[in-house]
């Protein structure tokens, strides 16, 4: 299914591929690489450590813990903005918005987050202290230990609020699709799906609150841990439950990550301890492709990226492994 076409040592966590051009940072340099010609195109010095790059038209936006920088097509930085209290996450939403920390209550140990426009350099709305902003598919939510709210991404207006105690941990947004928003509750070992328009609870599932991914095309909620399960996205009904510990062990893939990639019928995931990546066929219940690397592992927090038929993995030694989809 995939063949490894390039390995780059000493890469920071920020990287992206667009129009067959790879943009990444190595040390204090930002580099652009032509995937088709297999050659370096540009290299510029930078001062920040970028955790994310996003291509927007002829611009590249780099996001770091300190703020964000806008680069032109020749990788010249023409604007850098500092965020006083830091970036909330390393993502760009709606092509122009980032989540930032705007304040901190040192008496209660509670941060306050807001949404900032990277072109206006202005916070356009703020959540309350203790609420974290979560965004998926340009749909915004706020989560706290008291419950879940849906907010307007552009202005922050409250659309609905559901009071739910989440224990010691904040609810985690799994994703949105087919009119539902799915959250996992780690301390409760529970998944809860809300109607996207009304906030009404559509269903609850008692299960480990990780390894989850929404498949909007098939209307499924996949769960890939040591074994595999799938639920109906609209009703929560269990549609598939494949358990074969010995098979997964024999293939060298016992995953614990929650940021795997869906590609057609396949879940592309890595082993939690060893340098193994595989594509699990959710219909046939078997791995159609497994690739093993010695001496490395793939940290769970590091994202698996699948863009423009390229699969990108970041290992524990700081190397970026790039695979290309092979037509069969």
Description:
- By secondary structure, this protein is mainly β.
- It is 2% helix and 54% strand.
- The protein contains one helix and 31 strands.
- Strands 1-31-30-29 form a four-stranded antiparallel β-sheet, with no helix packed on it. It has a four-stranded antiparallel β-sheet with strand order 2-3-4-5, with no helix packed on it. Strands 6-7-8-9 form a four-stranded antiparallel β-sheet, with no helix packed on it.
- The longest helix is centred in the last third of the chain and has 7 residues, at 245-251.
- The radius of gyration is 20 Å and the shape is globular.
- It starts with a strand and ends with a strand.
Indicate the topology.
Blueprint: E1 2-8, E2 15-18, E3 21-26, E4 29-34, E5 39-45, E6 50-56, E7 59-64, E8 67-71, E9 77-82, E10 97-105, E11 110-117, E12 122-126, E13 132-136, E14 139-144, E15 147-151, E16 158-163, E17 172-177, E18 180-185, E19 190-195, E20 201-206, E21 212-215, E22 220-224, E23 228-232, E24 238-242, H1 245-251, E25 261-263, E26 266-270, E27 275-281, E28 286-293, E29 305-307, E30 310-314, E31 320-325
Antiparallel strand pairs: 1-31, 2-3, 3-4, 4-5, 6-7, 7-8, 8-9, 10-11, 11-12, 13-14, 14-15, 15-16, 17-18, 18-19, 19-20, 21-22, 22-23, 23-24, 25-26, 26-27, 27-28, 29-30, 30-31
């Amino acid at each position: 299914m995939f063949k490894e076409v390039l390995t780059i040592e000493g890469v920071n966590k920020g990287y992206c591929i667009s129009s067959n051009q790879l943009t990444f940072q190595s040390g204090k340099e930002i580099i652009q690489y032509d995937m088709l010609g297999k050659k370096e195109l540009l290299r510029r010095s930078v001062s920040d450590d970028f955790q994310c790059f996003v291509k927007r038209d002829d611009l590249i936006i780099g996001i770091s813990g300190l703020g964000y920088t806008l680069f032109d097509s020749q990788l010249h930085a023409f604007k850098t903005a500092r965020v006083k209290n830091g970036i909330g996450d390393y993502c760009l939403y709606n092509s122009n918005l980032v989540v930032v920390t705007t304040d901190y209550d040192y008496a209660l140990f509670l941060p306050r987050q807001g949404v900032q426009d990277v072109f206006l350099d202005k916070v356009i709305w703020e959540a309350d202290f203790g609420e974290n902003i979560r965004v998926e598919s340009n749909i915004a939510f706020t989560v706290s230990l008291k419950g879940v709210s849906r907010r307007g991404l552009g202005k922050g207006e409250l659309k609905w609020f559901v009071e739910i105690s989440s224990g010691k941990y904040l609810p985690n947004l799994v994703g949105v699709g087919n009119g539902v928003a799915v959250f996992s509750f780690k301390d409760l070992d529970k998944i809860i799906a809300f109607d996207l328009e009304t906030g009404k609870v559509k269903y609850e599932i008692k299960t480990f609150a990780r390894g989850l991914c929404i498949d909007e095309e098939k209307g499924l909620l996949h769960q890939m841990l040591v074994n595999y399960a799938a639920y109906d996205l609209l009703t929560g009904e269990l549609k598939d439950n494949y358990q074969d510990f010995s098979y997964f062990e024999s293939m060298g893939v016992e995953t614990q990550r929650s940021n795997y990639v869906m590609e057609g019928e396949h879940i592309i995931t890595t082993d939690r301890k060893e340098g193994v990546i595989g594509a699990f066929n959710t219909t046939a219940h078997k791995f159609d492709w497994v690739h093993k690397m010695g001496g490395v592992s793939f940290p769970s927090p590091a994202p698996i990226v699948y863009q423009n038929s390229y699969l990108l993995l970041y290992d524990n030694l700081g190397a970026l492994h790039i695979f290309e989809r092979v037509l069969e």
